[in-house]
Amino acid sequence: TPTPKRIAVTGAAGQICYALLFRIAKNDVYGPDQPVILQLLDLPQAQDAVRGVVMELEDCAFPLLVDTIITDDPATAFRDADAAFFVGSRPRSKGMERRDLLSANAEIFRAQGRALNEAAKREAKVVVVGNPANTNAMILAANAPDFPTENVTSMIRLDHNRALTQLAAKAGVAVDSIDRLAVWGNHSPTMFADWTNATSQDDSLSDMIGDDAWYRETLIPNVARRGISIIEARGASSTASAANAAIGHMHDWINGSDGKWGSMGVHSNGEYDIPAGLMFGVPVICTDGRYERVEGLTFNDFQREMMARTIAELQEEREAVAALL
Ligand code: NAI
Domain named Lactate/malate dehydrogenase N-terminal: which ranges (predicted)? Predict the structure, then answer.
């Protein structure tokens, strides 16, 4: 049998992890036959709650879950990790300013970046889910100087999946027939779900749907507001779909995407005039454990306008945490 993969998960007592951990333990990440060890991090006051979740994991008798570590020490959680899901973050409390939220999370991700730098395998694959995910991931990478920056990513896959389903429904096609969709920028209402290059069975989706007003005035805002719609309907935030997106992000990065586009928040080197250093949602193709940015795209005025909006927001976030970079 293969050596077990060590998967670190932060925020293990939280709502997303209540969906995520069971999917990892069943091994929806690496695929069948790969044993896994869960290394679970949460705050000291949440340790009992993590123990309760682990009791439930035990009660699933997952054949591939060979061990579980529970800790409040980041370096212990990240020790020799092959993959890490950074889900835990500080939620906005009543009356908290956006800037205070950014700096509270920046403190967390600075400390966790140092621990990642110290303890994880250099080839570990990292996805940041906890919001503000892009900026948290940027801080994490900046504070892990000996850890490869390209192995730190942030999650925009939930927005990608949301857009896929809405496009498939509008066009009357199967969701998995769609390719070449891109979601650019921040995981926030400024993110840009871009159908310009999207196809279904090689036919242009925008030609098939033929309704530019729907794209601009319904699809883009509905994807951006979907999280709020779910909170309004459910009385709680989207957690199972967020966990599913995190699984999809990591699964495709590890196992490949069969030549299809996905969207991942990755470190910008200045491609497409995205300022270098931002963690930015871009279209990627995954092969053999690596992601490659989709290159050679050209932009029309509408795309440029949408890109500028989400770039401006991420630059503001970066300025708010500049002292910690
Ligand atoms: P939650 O509040 O239920 O759980 C968060 C957990 O993180 C708690 O158990 C808390 O104790 C823990 N935590 C806080 N600070 C920590 C630290 N320094 N180290 C380790 N653990 C820590 O929240 P939920 O619903 O699980 O969501 C988690 C995050 O994911 C939130 O920031 C949420 O906004 C974000 N999110 C991101 C999405 C994306 O698409 N990128 C989608 C949905 C949610």
Answer: 6-146
Ligand 1 atom showing the smallest separation from residue 111 Cα? 18
- For residue 130, the CA-to-ligand 1 centroid distance in Å is 5
Is 187 labeled as catalytic in the residue annotation? yes
206 lines ligand 1 (CB under 6 A): no
Closest-CA residue, ligand 1 atom 42, reads 242
Number of H helices, E strands in the chain: 11, 14
Reading the chain (325 residues) residue by residue, the pLDDT tens digits are 899 999 999 999 999 999 999 999 999 999 889 999 999 999 999 999 999 999 999 999 999 999 999 999 999 999 999 999 999 999 888 888 888 889 999 999 999 999 999 999 999 999 999 999 999 999 999 999 999 999 999 999 999 999 999 999 999 999 999 999 999 999 999 999 999 999 999 999 999 999 999 999 999 999 999 999 999 999 999 999 999 999 999 999 999 999 999 999 999 999 999 999 999 999 999 999 999 999 999 999 999 999 999 999 999 999 999 987 8
State the first-to-last Cα distance of the chain, in angstroms, to the nearest integer. 42
Q: Which CATH architecture has domain 5-154?
A: 3-Layer(aba) Sandwich (3.40)
- Using the atom order of ligand 1, give the atom closest to the CA of residue 91: 32
Tell me whether residue 252 is annotated as binding: no
CATH architecture observed for domain 157-324: Alpha-Beta Complex (3.90)
Instruction: Compute CA distances 289 → 37, 74, 123, 131, 256, whole Å.
Output: 20, 25, 10, 25, 7
Q: Model-level pTM greater than 0.90?
A: yes
The domain limits of the chain are 5-154, 157-324
Q: Was 323 annotated as part of a binding site? A: no
ipTM of the complex: 0.98
Q: Which of 160, 187, 251, 267 is catalytic?
A: 187
How close is the Cα of 131 to the center of ligand 1, in Å?
7
Selection from 305, 313, 301, 303 nearest residue 275 by Cα: 313
DSSP 122-149: TT-EEEE-SSSHHHHHHHHHHT-TTS-G
